[in-house]
UniProtKB/TrEMBL annotation:
Organism the protein comes from: Glycine max (Soybean)
Top-level lineage group: Eukaryota
Biological process annotations from GO: meiotic DNA double-strand break formation
Protein's UniProt name: Uncharacterized protein
InterPro entries: DFO (IPR044969)
């Protein structure tokens, strides 16, 4: 990344640390994603994701004693920020935290109650992006909350029909999420089992390969020893031939037969 981009990232960090959770900060963040080439965009997006994850954790920890309203404002800011950089996992995680917090506090603050449409929207996004475990948990909470809805309890029209439709859809999505989680669990267990079986099956092959390697090494060493022995015999033969030729200049020892003949005399 260029020096100017590093400076812009540093400026964004300073805005977050100064608790400037407003639209202007989000617009500045969005401006950093404007790039002329794909490579630069990927690098900047990755850097922004890392920065936002780090800073969001720090900020959320620091506002533990703040009011629900303040917490929700911060969560909303980071939800929008993560959405801009395309970090769906972090975006959904913070949306989930905000929904659960609102539902938990809605008993004393009615305006915080999560609407059926909000629950359905979140569950659909979670399932669509493959976060089935989170979707399953959200469905359970949503169904529990919607089941306690006063309109549904008292059978008021026409709201109950809408609620029933939402509950039916959330139930369907919950079943899909549960099936996906169970399927994933089976796939993981199957993969681990196959890996373990493959390892066990390879052990005899490894032993057999090691034995073959040892046998092959022994064979090669045997050939080397035999060649060394032949070389020494040949050198000895040449030495004898040289000595005999020195005593009998008119004789030439050129083969093993002549060597054997003179060695007998």
């Amino acid at each position: 990344m260029s020096h100017s981009v590093d400076e812009q990232l540093s400026f964004l960090r300073s805005l977050i640390q100064a608790r400037s959770f407003c639209d202007s900060t989000l617009r500045f963040l969005e401006s950093l994603l404007v790039s002329k080439d794909v490579k630069s965009l990927i690098e900047v997006r990755s850097s922004l994701t890392h920065l936002l994850r780090s800073e969001s954790l720090s900020v959320i920890r620091s506002i533990a004693a703040k009011t629900v309203h303040d917490k929700l404002l911060v969560l909303d800011f980071f939800v929008r920020a993560f959405s801009l950089v395309g970090d769906q996992q972090s975006c959904l995680a913070l949306r989930y935290e905000a929904l659960v917090m609102r539902e938990h506090k809605s008993a004393s603050c009615q305006w915080l109650q999560v609407s059926p449409a909000e629950w359905l929207s979140f569950v659909e996004n979670a399932v669509h992006n493959g976060f089935h475990a989170v979707a399953e948990k959200a469905c359970e909470i949503a169904l529990s909350c919607l089941g306690n809805n006063d309109d549904l309890k008292h059978g008021r029209d026409p709201v109950p029909e809408n609620l029933k439709a939402v509950i039916s859809e959330i139930t369907r999505l919950r079943n899909c999420a549960m099936a996906s989680v169970a399927s994933r669990s089976v796939q993981v267990q199957t993969a681990e089992y196959l890996k373990r079986k493959t390892t066990e099956q390879q052990k005899p092959d490894l032993i057999y390969t090691e034995k073959r390697c040892l046998a092959s090494t022994s064979f090669r060493n045997g050939i080397k020893r035999q060649n060394i022995r032949k070389l020494r015999e040949h050198q000895s033969l040449q030495q004898i031939s040289s000595e005999l030729n020195g005593r009998h200049p008119n004789l030439r020892l050129n083969d093993q037969f002549n060597c054997d003949f003179f060695s007998l005399n």
